Amino acid sequence: MKIKYFITPHCSTCHALEPRAKKLAAHYDIPFETVDLAANPEAKGKYLLFSAPALLFLDGEKEMKRFVRNFGLNEVEDFILRFQD
């Protein structure tokens, strides 16, 4: 399992949430990658993203779960804990 976190340059929520999401991923030893949608516009089409921030859990390239726009890290951690059980 890995996490891809999608951001845009002018999204203050994206940038505020990023260090906390990285810390959560590190705590559970999950690889974490930040993708800037402005620098990588092809990711919008590949992952069907229409807003940011977006946090996707992937198994290889298969999407397991996505959190988009309005989500909290408590929800994300609950998903991680359910997946690990």
From TrEMBL:
A family per Pfam: Thioredoxin
InterPro entries: Thioredoxin-like_sf (IPR036249), Thioredoxin_domain (IPR013766)
UniProt xrefs under SUPFAM superfamilies: Thioredoxin-like (SSF52833)
Gene3D superfamilies: Glutaredoxin (3.40.30.10)
Thioredoxin domain segment(s): 5-80
Protein name per UniProt: Thioredoxin
Lineage: Bacteria, Pseudomonadati, Bacteroidota, Bacteroidia, Bacteroidales
